[in-house]
Design goal:
Layout: E1 5-11, H1 25-43, E2 47-53, H2 58-67, E3 71-74, H3 86-95, H4 105-112, H5 114-123, E4 131-134, E5 150-154, E6 168-169, H6 172-186, E7 190-194, E8 199-206, E9 212-213, E10 217-221, H7 234-238, H8 240-246, E11 248-252, H9 258-274, E12 280-287, E13 293-300, H10 309-316, H11 321-334, H12 338-341
Parallel strand pairs: 1-2, 1-3
Antiparallel strand pairs: 4-7, 5-6, 5-7, 8-9, 8-10, 8-12, 10-11, 12-13
Helix pairs in contact: 1-11, 3-4
Length: 342
Amino acid sequence: MKRLRVLILMHEELVPPDSLEGLSEQEVIRIAMEYDVRVALEELGHDVRVLGVKDELGPIRRAIEEWRPHVAFNLLMHFHGIGIYDAYVVSYLELLRCPYTGCNPRGLMLANDKVTAKKILAFHRITTPRFALYRRGRAVRAPARLEFPLFVKSAAEHSSMGIAQASIVHDEAELRERVDFVQRTIGTDAIAEEYVEGRELYVGVMGNRRLEAFPIWELTFDRLPEGSAPIATSKVKWDPEYQERVGVRTARARGLDAEQEAEITRTAKRIYRALGLSGFARIDFRLRPDGRLFVLEANPNPDLCHDEDFAVSAAESGIPYLELVQRIVSLGRRWSAPWKSA
């Protein structure tokens, strides 16, 4: 395997130390992905440099011009604190003619704009929950064509930001309160979509043109309090004490027949192609008790910690973590960016 110069782009405050020794569990969780990826690239034998990015593009340009990396390993989730701006950073990498890992800018923009993504998927006859968009500064009214309960979330942010049990609303008063919360605390428009009861399933997909789907993964709870909904809240994703208390588990989905597995996997690939994704992504579904499948959203550039869903499901399909990271590098270098054919 060729030794490559790999420039890892990560948020400045998430640059990990050489060792995790002495850090608290919460401190480790915060920088786990950045640490895992850096260590994996070093173990693969690549020449690795870490660049902590804050709110300037200049350091990225200088690092690329001075060091000439073979690929930039992109771990940025936002820029200037705004989630949808990650697409602009990737666009800048293309303007610099630097190969990068993960999703291309067009795919990032489409997937991160949840309203546009839903419209595209509807055109392709892929079922998503019916929804209404609430723009900031406009009156909030219960949409006549939607049925409560509704699930309220940011129209642009990801990583379960702003999602809690209170995100499920049952009347117009709760709807107004939650939409206001999203708009005020996250600073984006809000979406209210019909809440889908059922199993929460995830499918990791990898590739540029030729796609590979990993085994179907499921989120479950062993000790969810009575009256709570089984949803991936911010606490479920980021709070280890809460995870332990309610028994959060993710594992290969059981009890699906061959026809269901084939439909879910096929739909995940259709979504990936419809949104123009590349590199790797995770597609989130809800499967109702009657067997009807709904796509919740597509997540380009999901968490790459070695023990998170994407990497663990890849391992289940026979791709250990080091190989997964190497494949991501290879896909990034092979992506047919427009500048390559100009």
